[in-house]
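call fold(seq) -> tokens
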Amino acid sequence: MILLGSTGSIGVNTLEVAKKFGMNVEILVAGKNIELLNKQIKEHSPSIVIVSDKEDIAKVSHHCVYAGEKAIVDVIKDSSSELVVNALVGFLGLRPTLAALAAGKRVALANKESLVACGAFIDTSKIQPIDSEHFGLWYLLQERAIKKMIITASGGAFRDWDLNKLQNATLADTQKHPNWSMGQKITIDSATMVNKMFELLEARWLFGEGEYDAIIETKSLIHALIDFKDGSTTAHFAHASMQLPIAYALNKKMDENILAHVDLLKVGSLEFREILPERYPVWQIKNDLLKNPARGVVINAANEAAIELFIAKKIGFMDISKNIIKAYEKFTALPKNVEDVFLIDKDVRSFILQNKG
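ret:
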């Protein structure tokens, strides 16, 4: 297989599962964590390695190292591997997804932005989602009429904060996730609830038209629920580990134990909360976005640009959502093709960065 984003948490978990199944890793693609990458090279012996920056090539302990987005796309086209695991973060992951699908490969997708920005032009029949929420929905699907598909959210770093203090939240504050440790951007997205908006859009592209929603489940033990038209509801319980959805993406005949079961007696109780726009302002455009899912490219570009400004301390935390909503109201044209997606992405980023909130 080809693994994009090998040094992130999903990449590390993917390599653990690959080792368990004895799978060959043909290509590793990583960012700036060269120390961990070199350990992965030693253990998995890939044929080719790609890093993000040319300056890092000399630091990589491998005879065949390339750098940059074009190199990723080129090796995907030329590779003999049938599976691409895309765990890249951000819009950067879109071109590799498109290249993999064009080459007839199967894609195990953790890169949310591919479907959020370009879902209208992607054939999802070759995609296996490895987000816990989409895996949970897939796991629950039956031959029964569905009323609503629901995914869960942790609530992020500020789920219990005083609303009046949110405007003063710092970058360090956003990283204090109540349930687990993730990368910087996705933890910010969890705090704004943008991450869950993205996952609802992904679900819409993966499972088709229908009613979708999200709720907060504070212990992150339920990942998805389905309301059936007959009045019954099913829920997918599992400990929060990416290894289960990854295992199914790598081995569709999964019949071995990956996780310990959830012991409900030890859990004792669960708490559910509504996602409210007062705490998560971006939620006010959720319903309109799901009716117009091709506009996902706008919220993705605005979000990435606003996060860039927030990290640079040019805007406050609550201004991230304000910028997304402002861009969503301004850019209303739907992309007609993949080229439009990249053009709209560029225009939205320029708009946010030039206006600086």
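The mean pLDDT is 94.
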